[in-house]
Amino acid sequence: MADKPLQVDELGGRGIGVELRAVCVELDGVRVLRRISLELASGSHTLLIGPNGAGKSQLLKVLSGERWPTPTKGCSRTYRGYAGAPLELRDLLPRLQLVSAEQQDRYERYDWNFAVTTVVGTGCRGLNAPLGPLTRKERIHAHVCLRAMGLWTLRRRRFLTLSYGQRRLVLIARALAARPALLLLDEIYNGLDAAHRRRLDRVLDRLCLTPLTLVVTAHRAEDAPAGLDAVVAIQRGRLRYAGPRRLLPAAYAGYVSGRSAGGPAVRARKESPPAAPVTPLVVLERASVFRDYRPVLRGIDWTVGAGENWVILGPNGSGKTTLLSLLHGTLWAADGGRVLRRGHEPGQRVEDWQARVRYLSPDSHVGCLDSATLTNVVLTGIPHLRRLDARPTGEQLAAADAALRLVGLVSLASRSPRAVSYGQLRLTLLARALIGRPEALLLDEPLTGLDSKTRNRMRAVLTRLAANGTQLIAAVHHADDLIPAFSRALVLPSGRQRRL
After folding, report:
1. Under a CB-based contact definition with an 8 Å cutoff, are residues 327 and 339 in contact?
2. What's the mean pLDDT in 458-472?
């Protein structure tokens, strides 16, 4: 059955309004939202902007009912129907839908590997995990939402076998299955290729014609849907602007006009790199990988030479993440294929290789959210410190401090991972990857979820690493995520390679 265009009367319902008065949120003793007073009218369509660490994700959690405001004088949160009558949060929760990277990572963390139709169908019940088979009516509605998102061909796939971008679209379909009155979308374009972005654009354009109340966060200008006519800007936890998009102050224009708010072009520091070994970093011979009994990569022959920096290109579902996992040793080639790694003999522990070649992906932080501080997160990059009884030395603490300083987060070293933004956590994970001075970095969408200033910082760090001899292999979708150090490209149109 072909994908079906979205019918606005099939998904969503009448929007609700939300009124916040002097709302504060404090996490681990840190005030992340400061006396936010904001009114979202029923049926409004709003763009929420601000740099990493501004508090956007926490504000969405407050709006969704997931986060309760810290009790302060004059604080209130009120929901109202389209006619203005107050509504109780407990009655609204199933129709307050938030789609975010944190929600997506929850499926990885708890190994919720359900069929795609089942995942979408749980939206009909307001549940994260199914408590029983879907009814016929729920299954039909799940299929309507999947067709609306252009995901019909994935309906029988297991959720965790999908690409990062495909998972994001499935969770949007799940939110639509709840017929939401308030839909909150946090950086939803992250990890999407051009075709999937256009598909999502069409869905959001149609949702902007409905009475649904919609809030979308964005860092890049191209991630700001045209149909959003209102803008809310926050910075350092404070409300800076709330009003029509056409009156947005010039300081925030880069979020919606295509002008970058970043700094100057990235330049490599002129340092003499160490002499590189002449043996290739890794060689793939007829390498195939199957997930859920389906071929994701087929017969890959590829050599990553010494000193080469590669970019991997391809649409969602082409196998980019699977290829990086294969290089890292998280996945293995099927019989008949081989992966030869420099300095790693057959039968040697794969952990020895992974200590030398680090992997950074959008879901790398799933296992570090319970760490006490960002310093502790970085220290887990030292293999033996992952044991519960291990204690870092002064030299190791200094190395963690230096890594955080390199990515510009030393001032947040004592913060909890749950008290920083998604972008700040991504930089922390980069610092963790660097603490062991790896020979190579495997990067899956390394600039995803970062504002323009933080993207420039990340690009500068990667440029410096490449200049000093660390090999980079990165999967990207955005052309502006590339740095001059990437001199070779591998294209995966459908699980097969093509070199550029």
Report:
1. yes
2. 91
The strand order across the sheet containing 30-40 reads 30-40, 17-27, 76-80, 86-87
Does residue 98 sit in the same domain as residue 166? yes
- Give which of 49, 383, 4, 48 is closest to 199, Cα–Cα: 4
Between CA 194 and CA 19 the distance in angstroms is 36
Distance CA 4, CA 10 (A): 12
Confirm whether 175 is domain-assigned: yes
Q: What is the reported pTM?
A: 0.81
**128: pLDDT confidence band, cut at 50, 70 and 90?**
confident
Structure confidence by residue, pLDDT tens digits, 155-173: 999 999 998 889 999 999 9
Classify 286 in phi/psi space as left (phi over 0), alpha (psi -120 to 50) or beta: left
* 407 assigned to some structural domain: yes
- How does pLDDT run across 313-334, given as a tens digit for each residue? 998 888 999 999 999 999 999 9
Q: How far apart are CA 366 and CA 403, in angstroms?
A: 20
Residues 69 and 382: their CA atoms lie apart, in Å, by 37
Residue-wise pLDDT tens digits, 174-204: 999 999 999 999 999 988 888 888 889 999 9
Range of the domain at 320: 282-499
From 72, 49, 44, 71, select the one nearest 59 (Cα to Cα).
49
pLDDT given at position 294: 85
Bridge partners of 313, per DSSP, are 491
Find the CATH number of the domain harbouring 345: 3.40.50.300
| Percentage above 90 pLDDT, the chain | 54
Tokens at 424, concatenated: 């700040």
99-117 mean pLDDT: 91
- Between the CA atoms of 328, 388, 430 and 424, what dihedral angle is there, to the nearest 10 degrees? 140
Cα separation, 33 vs 203, whole angstroms: 31
The CA distance from 378 to 412, in Å, is 12
Task: Say whether both 248 and 313 belong to one domain.
Answer: no
For residue 41, tell me if it sits in a domain: yes
* Residue 314: inside a domain: yes
**Co-location of 89 and 167 in the same domain:** yes
